[in-house]
Amino acid sequence: MLWLKKNAKESLNRKLYETNNNKNLFEGVSKKFDLKNAISLVEVYDNSHISGTNSVGAMVTFGNEGFVKKRYRKFDIKTKGAEQDDFAMLKEVLSRRFKRAILEKGNYLTLPDLILIDGGKGQYSSAKEVLNELGLYDLPMIAIAKGKMRNSGNETFFYNGKSYKFEKNDPTLFFMQRLRDEAHRFAITSHRAKRAKGLSKSLLDQIDGIGAIRKRSLLNHFGSARAVESASFDEIKSVEGVEEKVAKKIYNFFHE
């Protein structure tokens, strides 16, 4: 029991330390950009796509206790023509996120104290346009743009018509890079998942006589169309609802 108490105490102390450290980092951001309000919740936005396909917008959230995974959101881009346009994608994502917050108020995510977006002046202007249209004039937003060589440590930050730079060893810079990198990671992960789903769908859709129910059974059993492709005839035949004749058709499709 003593070790349980000791572990619980250490865990609590670590959490208190991290919370206090995060508060200091928030204060560093407020001081650098001369923000009027205190910060305890930041939302960070990024987009991911390959040549305009499977375009996804991503939002991650960071609070006093660290990244708040239950507040992460992904947005499948719906606006026609926006799939390759970073500005249009960002506009759609912010518009959907904050319109819903305004309409549903208490039933949706609370507003953050600060928005951080991956991009430069252009992205900042596009995002500001959306916030102004929704009447969110006082919600502060900062854009983080990579340097000319896209090297970490040479980022330029844009806020309220001014540009900012940090010393390369500034803890506040590392903090903001960490926020940006987590949004980037989540955007890429969401994009890959969407792409894999699309590949699975398109491969199985090419086989005649494979309806929605059989397709679902195959995907549930194997996990992806790629796994179906590498499965043996007997493995395919063992899937519930897939009789021998259909199993042969599926196997032959991938192996002829």
Please tell me about this protein's structure.
With 256 residues, this protein is α+β, with helices and mostly antiparallel strands. It has helices at 2-33, 86-104, 121-133, 171-205, 212-222, 225-229, 233-237, 244-255, and strands at 41-50, 53-63, 66-67, 73-76, 114-118, 141-145, 156-159, 162-164. Strands 1, 2, 3, 4, 5, 6, 7 and 8 form an 8-stranded mixed β-sheet that branches. Helix 1 packs across helix 4 and helix 2 (86-104) packs parallel to helix 3 (121-133).
Care to give the gist of this entry?
The protein is of the alpha+beta class and 256 residues long.
Q: Please report which band the strand proportion falls in: under 5%, 5-15%, 15-25%, 25-35%, 35-45% or over 45%.
A: 15-25%
Enumerate how many helices there are, as a single number. 8
Query: What is the name of the CATH class of the largest domain?
Result: Alpha Beta
Structural class: alpha+beta
Can you summarize the main beta sheet? 8 strands, mixed
CATH fold annotation of the largest domain = Nucleotidyltransferase, domain 5
Following the backbone from N to C, one meets helices and strands in this order, namely HEEEEHEHEEEHHHHH
Question: Outline, from the CA principal axes?
Answer: elongated
Oligomer: single chain
